[in-house]
Amino acid sequence: MFMSFHSIFTSPLSSKLAFCRLAPVLFVPIAFGGLRLSQTLCTSTNIQRRYMQPPEAKRVCADNMVPKIGTHNGTFHCDEVFACFLLRQLSEYKDAEIVRTRDPAVLATCDVVVDVGGEFDPKKHRYDHHQRVPTCNHTRMPKCRAALCYILLRSFVETFSSLCPEKPWGTRLSSAGLVYLHFGRRVLEEITQLKPDDRRLEALYDKLYENFVEEVDAVDNGISQYDGEARYAVSSTLSARVGHLNPRWNSKSQDTEEGFKQAMKMVGAEFLDRMEFYQNAWLPARAVVEGAVQMRTQVDPSGEVIVLEQGGCPWKEHLFFLEKELKVETPIKFVLYPDQSGQWRVQCVPAGLHTFQNSLHGEGRILAEASLSLLEEWRGVRDEALSTLSGIPGCVFVHASGFIGGNRTQQGALEMARRTLQAAAKARGEGKETQANGS
């Protein structure tokens, strides 16, 4: 027997419910009456198919009736400000009236409601994250097949990953994240004019969540970026700046309408600026790095060196992603590129995106062998002394840590990488021989 949550509360079964005053937990014995709850697994594909389309009319209205976006009144926060901005980027909501209220009767007249109303239901376009939701007491899921279990009312805990299992992000969603999850692709389609099947669209969608929206979700839900005490305060985040647009506690006027409009304009401008950068600078860099990865064996037969013909191209993040996507078996060790003076740099690929260290276990990059630094005897040596020491003409420098070096020519920089690879291979061979003799 299948029953909706509404049916639970309005059926004779409701007499079996027990509430705890100290913790608002609702217990519903699943075995009572054979109750089972249904759940639909949600992926980004069916979200787009089922929920990202323009809302169906909930009432008979004139063709010229202005659509309404509902959110709460009073002090505003970055999440609902951003959610409202996103919705207004869609053709069906571009002229929408934003109704700020907590009156359920008024909210019921709105086409879409965010951050208020105590309901998350994409089919009805309700995107709140403050409510408590029925959850199985031991599987933490809305559905359970155990012979005996209880449904608890727990805080809303949906994440991008829980709604779209193919995505990695585990930060609890705010109204910003909920709206972005369900409408973000369409927003990006309309702004960028990219087609739905263009893989660049998905790359932008992921990048903007990870580097813009997730922060809003975390701040609104009170999730710290790290464990332990902060060494210093960061007071200039987007959420903080939105907060400063609310009336001061001792201002004569506590009207928040004008501040809300300013906040939406500020948040929207920053989102569009970030999106423009990712579309016109970050995505083209990925194409450059992908081309270099595809051509790597023409640079060196080992496939462990790539060449970027244009200096300044951001490559680390793209390289780590492409190694996985293209299933590169032998990790790339060196990247060559020209500097502003026309000379060439040889840079070691680090173990992770946010480190210079070349270790065996990288950030999402488990190497078959240790990443390499340029030869130790070269480090800190410059110019002719380095050329004499290495036997490579045109050397300019090697950093004291060995993570980067320079040469006047591309060929010289490539030779610095090759010599390092050869020395590493020789050291591995000697190590294996010693180990075999010792055993």
UniProtKB/TrEMBL annotation:
GO terms for cellular component: cytoplasm; nucleus. Belongs to the MYG1 family. This is Uncharacterized protein. It comes from Synaphobranchus kaupii (Kaup's arrowtooth eel). The lineage of its organism: Eukaryota, Metazoa, Chordata, Craniata, Vertebrata.
